[in-house]
Specification:
The protein is mainly alpha-helical and 83 residues long. It has a domain at 1-27 and 49-66. Helix content is 47%, strand content 0%. It is built from 2 helices and no strands. It has helices at 8-33, 51-63. Helix 1 (8-33) packs antiparallel against helix 2 (51-63). It is flat and about 55 Å long.
């Protein structure tokens, strides 16, 4: 069975554009807030820079028969503390 790459070239280009757009948007928001992080840190602290690549990988995974795979892409919620 051949691997279906679901037009990964275009999806990769889109992911790269999304990465840089998110970085630049985050950096502008940091500067506008008046509390920018040091150096380039301000452009990478949003936690959304890699979403385009995550979406590309999910498309490949789903296209290759793992539609119901248990894929964790978000940080798990910590359990409630009992006092």
């Amino acid at each position: 069975m051949a691997l279906d790459l679901v037009d990964y070239e275009k999806k990769t280009q889109k992911a790269v554009k999304s990465f840089w757009k998110t970085r630049n948007t985050t950096k502008k928001k940091q500067l506008a807030s008046g509390k920018p992080d040091q150096g380039e840190r301000g452009s990478v602290t949003s936690g959304k820079n890699m979403n385009g690549f995550i979406n590309m990988l999910l498309a490949v995974i789903h296209a290759n028969g793992l539609k119901k795979a248990d894929i964790h892409i978000k940080k798990p919620t910590p359990p409630a503390r009992v006092l």
